[in-house]
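B., you asked whether I could sanity-check this one before it goes into the benchmark set. Here's the sequence:
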Amino acid sequence: MIGREQIIKKYFEAWLIKNGQILKDIFTERTVYSECYGPEYNGIEVVKRWFEDWNKHGTVLLWNIKQFIHQGNMTAVEWYFKCEYEGSIEEFNGVSLIEYDKTNHIVSLKEFQSKIPHYYPYT
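And here's what the prediction gave me:
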């Protein structure tokens, strides 16, 4: 499972350093990427285009991994994300569900978001 963790770490780092060159080494040609707020990108060429377009407007400031959970050809990774996009700072916790093919390339990546700050309505 270490190989898969390194793939995810490389992917997160690509955002931090704005280097999309490694995307083709991580994702399959037919990958499906679902973002936590609705957009979905089908195919590596669309994922690369989104990466380039997003980085023209924003900067990922932090993308810290909290934990990995592996089962079969799937990995769940819990993380904290912070970015600046068009002058606004956003941050949230999240989870990605990642499915791999037999060569450890990402076939599917689904993100889920948990807004910050959390609040306690019944205290």
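One thing to flag: The chain has three helices and six strands. Otherwise nothing jumped out at me.
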